[in-house]
Every structure is written in structure tokens, then in C-alpha cells.
Write a structure and sequence with these properties.
- This is DNA-binding transcriptional MocR family regulator.
- Keywords: DNA-binding.
- The structure is a single chain.
- Helix 6 crosses helix 13, helix 7 crosses helix 8 and helix 7 packs across helix 12.
- Strand 9, helix 11 and strand 10 form a beta-alpha-beta unit.
- The protein is about 40% helix and about 15% strand.
- The protein is α/β, with parallel strands linked by helices.
- Among the domains are: about 90 residues, Winged helix-like DNA-binding domain superfamily/Winged helix DNA-binding domain (Arc Repressor Mutant, subunit A), CATH 1.10.10.10; about 220 residues, Type I PLP-dependent aspartate aminotransferase-like (Major domain) (Aspartate Aminotransferase, domain 2, 3-Layer(aba) Sandwich), CATH 3.40.640.10.
- The chain is globular.
- The longest helix is centred in the last third of the chain and has 23 residues.
Length: about 475
Amino acid sequence: MTEGATETTWLPAIRKANGPLYIAIADAIAADIAEGRLPEGTRLPPQRALAGALGIDFTTVSRAYNEARHRGLVEGRVGQGTYVKARRMKGLQPAADGLVDMSMNLPPLFDDAALTMRLWSDIASLQGEHGLDLLMRYQAAGGALHNRAVGATWLRPRLGNIPAERVLICAGAQSALVATISSLAKPGDTIAAEAIAYPGLRALAAHLGIKVVGIPIDENGMIPEELETICESSKLTALYCNPTLHNPTTATLPAAQRKAIVAIARNHGVAIIEDDAYGAIPIAGPPPLASLAPDIVYHIAGLAKCLSPALRIAYLVVPDRQSGIRLEGAIRATSGMAPPFNGAVATRWIEDGTAAEVLAAIRREVTIRQEMVSRLLPRDIVQTDPEGFHLWLHLPPPWTRGDFANRLRASGISVVTSDAFAIGLAPEAVRLGLGAARTHEELHRSLLAIADLLQQSPAASSLVV
């Protein structure tokens, strides 16, 4: 045994799996590395010894070690045995200038090597669970029934028990929005949304030839009385809203206003599209609109903000079987289907608890970053939520959004001005994303630069010569 290596009498805790036993053993190696039970440099038991202890064939253990080696988990050393490989985890490095692109609204990175390894190990284990079918077969437009059932399980804390038949798998929240709006409205129709709304909705409506009317908002979100006025004066096909950690203002609509909005929509025969992109992030909060009025609400729960932006998976909960059939047709027409591989990854992460751990890690990181905001930026102009990872900055006079964004850009910081969100008159405000910074130091420098600029006048900070 080489210097620094440790011996182990390790035996795998093999999870019940549909795939081959050698894959289950490789999964156990990955899990125990991630949990710290197999530190790097540990020598695994000799293959014949492990086969005898488990009462299985030597070739099964040999295949398991080869699989673990293929995943980059272990390495074989000639004449010495098989060892847990050192993980060369790349640290979170700051940008060269120490600043950050804050225009992107991403969940913050967490510096957890074990959890990162678990995410990748789960992906690798899909080979044994699904084989080649996952890579070489199409699925139904609404997704495989098992993945839909797991989606229902993920949504249960917020929506209660819902049948898998009411859950459709979409290729991200925007895909779900395309399918829903195109099935509810036709060119020339009018839908309503918050007067400050998600830019993807505005772009989609323009593409489909659908008019969007803005409902005035206050610090809590959409104002029910204003919605009532619009409903009485216009024929609305649908109402779009983002009631929890609203993008960009971070407002969360209180329960009383949610009930009022549902009652108004029901009274006027208006379907509701609930964009719940951030709904999983708060530990507790008001009930989703879909739990208050499941018969008229189309609930879109993407995984980009609470799990992984790269996954491009969203769960679309429809009111009933008939609307589900209609939406499946819209999904088939607009995107074909969600990528089956992505759906399988999401299912695996949810089923084995990895998704819950990632969500908890994101929440912990959000707390740290929001504490930095409260220390460094003026509280009277910052609109945010302790559980959110973006903020809405109301600019003090004489700053205008254009001048402020241009000055920041010259310093290497990008933000999004209110023009991208406004349906109608744009306020003097910008959105800052707290999640794009790779380190706390990077975010700290950027927030200090923003705070410093706010203390200057636009004229004094001008770079024009």
C-alpha cells in the first residue's frame, strides 16, 4: 500500500435497482465517496475479497470497478489495487476584474464538492437504470408517466396530491408557456399580466400576435381592483401572473390578494397561467393559485431556478384531462417533447433526495448573499426578499435607468433596466441578479461598486470627454 493511503473493509450498501448488479455497486461507490465514507486515496477491497463477502461472481465486481473507473471515481494502480481518485474540484474563481454580469437571474452556485459529485454520479447511473432506450427512443409529448408521477411528488408540498395525468413534462418553463398560451389564445386576443412582467411573456405574445395589457401593481404585486377594472372593460382570454418572488420586483402576493384575483378571474371566465418559477424556494408562503382554483389555473413549475438552469425541465399542471389532451397537442406542435434524458435526470435527482439537497444548498447561499445586500446597499431603494436571489433597485433622482446602467457597464457590471419588463411606462429601476457571481468576494466587490455609484451624481460620474 502506498504512503498516505488508508485501508478499508468497505462493503457497498446496494440500493434496489432495475439495472445490473455491477451498476448498483458502482452507484454505491459514488454515493459513499459523495458522503465522505470513502475519502480520496482510500484503497477499495480486492475484487475477489469483495465478491466473496457479497456472495457474488468475481466478474461482477470487476465490471463494477471498471464502471467506477470509467466515471472517474477510482483509479487502478498496477500491483497495488484500486483507489478512490483524488477529485480535482475547480474552486469558484472570481472574474478577472473582480466584477460580475448581474443581468442574468441565476440560482447562486454552492461550493459543495460532495453534492456536486452526487449530481454527476446520478447522471452516470442512468445507464444501468435505463440502458440504450433512454438515448434512442422518443417519448409521449407529455412525458413518461413515471416522470410525471415524480413531478407530482415534487409539487405535493405546494399543490397537495395531484394525479400524474394532470402533470405534463415540458422542455423548460418557456416551452410550457408557449404551449399554454398558444392553446388558450389566438392572434388578436388579449391577455393580461402584471404591468412589470417577465420579458419572455412579452416576447412570446408579440410572436403570436397576442395583445398584452398591464395590470398595475403595488409593493405586494398585482392589485385585484385594477384587474377587476380591466376585466370589465376588456375581453380577456387569460391572465398571466408570477405571484411568488415576482420577477423582477421580488414581491410575493399575499393570500388575501390571491383569493381576490382567483374570484375575479372565475367571475369573468378568465383562465389563469401561474408562473411559479420561484415557488419552491421559500420554505413557507401563501398557497399557489393552482391550489385555490385548480379548475381554472395552469400552473408552470420550472426547475431552472430551484435546481438547475441547464436541465430545461418544467412541470405543467393542467386543470383536467381534457385540457391535458389539448396541451399535449400544443407541446407536440411546438417542441415535440421534453428531452427524455433531462426528464430522467430530474426524476433521479428528486427520487433519491439530491434535488432536495440542492434546493437546501441554494437557500443557504441565498441567505449569505442577501445579508451582503442588506449591509452594502441603501435599504430605502432596494426592493427584495430574504429568500430571493434578485433585487429591484429603485433609482434615486436624478439618476435615470439608462445613465445608471451605462455607468455600471463601463465598470464591468451588467444589469437589466426596467424597459425589458414594462408593459407601458417604465419606472426608473433596474434588476440585479445575485446568483451570477461565482464567489462572495466577487459579489461583494460588485455591490460596493454599485453603492459607490449611487452616492455620485450622473454628471460627476460621466465618462464623456
